[in-house]
Amino acid sequence: xxxxxxxxxxxxxxxxxxxxxxxxxxxxxxxxxxxxxxxxxxxxxxxxxxxxxxxxxxxxxxxxxxxxxxxxxxxxxxxxxxxxxxxxxxxxxxxxxxxxxxxxxxxxxxxxxxxxxxxxxxxxxxxxxxxxxxxxxxxxxxxxxxxxxxxxxxxxxxxxxxxxxxxxxxxxxxxxxxxxxxxxxxxxxxxxxxxxxxxxxxxxxxxxxxxxxxxxxxxxxxxxxxxxxxxxxxxxxxxxxxxxxxxxxxxxxxxxxxxxxxxxxxxxxxxxxxxxxxxxxxxxxxxxxxxxxxxxxxxxxxxxxxxxxxxxxxxxxxxxxx
Length: 322
Fold this sequence. Notes:
Layout lengths: L1 H26 L2 H9 L2 H28 L6 H17 L5 H13 L3 H29 L8 H20 L7 H17 L5 H25 L6 H14 L10 H12 L4 H18 L1 H15 L13 H5 L1
Helix pairs in contact: 1-11, 2-12, 3-4, 3-6, 3-8, 3-9, 3-12, 4-5, 4-13, 5-6, 6-7, 6-8, 6-9, 6-10, 9-10, 9-12, 10-11, 11-12
């Protein structure tokens, strides 16, 4: 099992690396260099400001889900931990290392690592579901390179959702490991996501996060020199954001590949797409840097020597040691 997981991890890294290699082979290094040169202070400041909004919303969503599972999170702690996870996600291969670290850290703080990981998995899944729903809704009505296939995608997603709902309602003939797992997942969904006090806030925060990421991408496209109107860029941005969930190398790989394809299909040029993706990647990295400060602060706290306990009153050091 361990070797299989390691093989899958390396396969994901290889696919992301191969995507970048193919882009360099087909387009050269020019679009990557152009993207780096296009980045300016205004774009970085805008990305950092939008990241505050999206990170606070993500932390709020995490607190709601965690509370539904019976654990609490202080707002400041949640925001700091989320910034830390974002920084790890955009600097380490895979794109999920930060989330795993966040779940384990929260679980250790609450003496329940499994529950901490479950809360993070549910929180991220909720965000992805809302993002997919918004993306499909927009792509159904707005012209895009994939508009012709979107009705089939929408039907497939509805069928998948119906199948999951039926599987959750089906009563097993006899207790089994699968039945216990399904029961636990259904309980987490009911308490953490679908409770009346939870799902409206989860949907709202997730929608705001998507809006913040889309705005960041639109700024990146403008910074890279793309002059297409926002109405044309919106569906492309949503497609690229979905690609960001694929296995990657610190955020790089599938994002650049999908952006190049989407821009080319929209008549904007693959090179412009790659340059936009590079600008976006730099903006996201800079916006995540507060997470590095959180990591450094935590390391400094751990490296401090523990304070020495005072000796009992009336006893000297020698007497105490005796």
